[in-house]
Amino acid sequence: MAEITVIGSINMDIVALTNQYPKHGETLFGHSVTNLCGGKGANQAVACARLGKSVNMIGSIGIDAYGKEIEKNFKQHQIETSFLKRVENESTGCAIITVDATAENTMLVVKGANDSLNEHDIQEAFSQIDNSKVLLVQMEIPEAVVIRAMMEAKSKRMFIILDPAPAEGVTKEALLYADVITPNLQETKHLTGIEVTSIETAIEAGKFFDQTFGIKNCIIKMADKGALLYENGKTTFIEAIPVNAVDTVGAGDSYAGALACAIADGESLESAARFAAIVAALKVSKLGAQSGLPTIEQLNEYCVENNLTYYGLRTKQLR
Predict the structure, then answer these.
(1) Which residues participate directly in catalysis (predicted)?
(2) Which residue out of 64, 121, 163, 253 is catalytically annotated?
């Protein structure tokens, strides 16, 4: 069975490139538009697969052209698709994404078939999953499904990574089942009320998660400033890898996927977070939430070229 199980959203991304976003009621001309496989769950599953891990994908798609293309993409990445739910009465989820000249993005998501996933689907899937080491889950599917998945994973002693995105869908109950959460700046502010602008405020947010929610481990992603690992009261700042950013869509998903891969390999949270920082840096330097995700071979080549290392390279360990 697969080392990593991912449960989450599956979408087709319609990505438009433009110099700047149109204002309300304004019409602007963009550069190009492309259809790309996406969705936070699907992105994270592909991230893990491209980094060399075996992956189960649990999610829901429509019986339509987008669903067929997405399933074909999963199979090309050797991702286990037997747990996919295919529904007739809903279209495959879709995200309309605009990327501007600074590589930042806006996103409008139509959930579609993603909302058809239910607790029975999760129980049925986990009855057949025995050897996964890590569960990777987000909040773009119904909350009851997320909580059921984490409960099932707990019973099988899997390490649970919760990417609390979007933050509006996160409740205290969902947070409590996670072994580590990985909020970005916006999600951290929504959940804690703290605007993270420095290492000090990131530490403050980490303490808030611990003291208010009982979350002992979190990684607060601070975009190009780096990340703050809060682990049982101990804090470690991990610097970002400087790159020329082309597309930030999927950066958080690449980070979550890389984190899961390292944990599956038995690495510590710090080692995993350092690995994830390199993967995310390489991702944002390329276009596409999935097409821009690095393979393990590309990652190793990038590390050699840029004098970087991580636990999987034999030169030295980044600890």
Answers:
(1) 253 (proton acceptor)
(2) 253
